[in-house]
Amino acid sequence: MALEVVKLATMSPDTPLLERVACGDRTAVSACIDRYSGLVWSLARRFVANEADAEEVVQEIFIELWSTAARFDATRASEATYVSMIARRRLIDHVRRVARAPAREMLTDVEHLLARDGEPHLEATSETGRVLQAMTSMSCEQKQVVHMSTWLGMSHAAIAERTGQPLGTVKSHLRRGLIAIREQLGLDATGGSNEYR
Amino acid sequence: MNTDNERLLELLAQQAIEPLSKADQEELSQLLEQVSDTASDDLELAVAAAWQTFASQELMPEEAPASLKAKLQADADIFFAGAASNPISQSTDLRSRTASVTPIDAALYAKAENYAKTEKRSRGPLWAAVSGWAIAAGLALVLVWGLEISDSAGPSADLVELLANKPETKVYPWGVSELEGYENVTGNVTWNSSLQQGFLRLSGMPTNDPAATQYQLWIVDPARDEEPVDGGVFDIAVDGEIIVPIDAKLLVSSPAAFAITREQPGGVVVSEGPLLVVATTG
Hints:
Largest sheet of chain B: 4 strands, antiparallel
Order of helices and strands of chain A: HHHHHHHHHH
Shape of chain B: flat
Structural class of chain B: alpha+beta
Largest sheet of chain A: none
Largest interface: A-B, 82 and 64 residues
Helix content of chain B: 25-40%
Strand content of chain B: 15-25%
Number of strands of chain B: 8
Oligomer: heterodimer
């Protein structure tokens, strides 16, 4: 605990909230709730039909956020993306638990979706532009797979069935798509080098 | 990009999207041992960034209800109060335990123990032992629900009272152990996944010399990982009933079993058992 107190005392006001939370800064905890509860709530309402269930999942997401705040690394992702990662895990888990397929927007026109503008929508993160940039290099089929997989949470098999693409092609599209996004974000899934240590 | 690397990326990409099969999970574990600890997070961050991008395009912003914000603040207050309290404490003047326990299938217990002794894999023997056992043994268990309130003072008493008032709190009795010295251990595990807090209630647990060995709690949660979650080390210094707050090092969402082992002082990262006492949730 003493180490956390020292860390907290030496932090600047610009230190990310989650780093402050990890050191036990209670004002940062409240600020985190203020800043991200709307984002998480909006996501929960998208995936959880029942409002009481949505509230429960949001509570679980924030508990996990407090538990894992020390793992946040501002050099690898924005706070909003980290929060989204935690939220996504919990929401997909919930969807799988209740065995309700996320079918509402399965046939969304991805091109139209990505080009849409002028409507109020969730605040974009610093990574949003880079993700969109990565998607400009993808084929329509690849974008569709990435959308169905990451956003709608569909399994590879379900995507293959829905789109009529072979399972191997779906996996390949997704793998290449995620690698392209990862590269645009400056992340490296093999730990800083493409070669094994 | 070499073949192994390509396969690693494929498995990481798949894991970021959907649960892996057992065989794929084992293959991924082997490949990940050759790369950095942050590797698996990076593709998940890429997925999250894509997910957040779609969300920013599709969703209308909604303010969280004030009542929900208040709940989040209350949860945070409890969470950080728990984190600041001493993870190990004991109390001997609690009300006597009233939970009744149905015997666990001894053959299944022996099978789990034998697995823990013979399987010397570098990762996850305890999880595999307990999870397989827990699923089967859980069928033979009758769970006892309800809480007793401690009348002692201190962090343990606060925790007992706090959890007693939460509807999500669950209580799982310890099974009857076949191991010599642990046959008379009774009590239960109280756990609240929403709050990520809980405590062990133990009676009849042999005392230990902290300089030689310490007890270590493990929480099996197949929903999160093949590895059991370290629930903290603790000592038994006195006879009688004690309360031990659980100090889960990682998030536990759907515990399948709680198990105690005896380890070197400070505990271990991967236990080889034996499992002294076990409580299942199934």
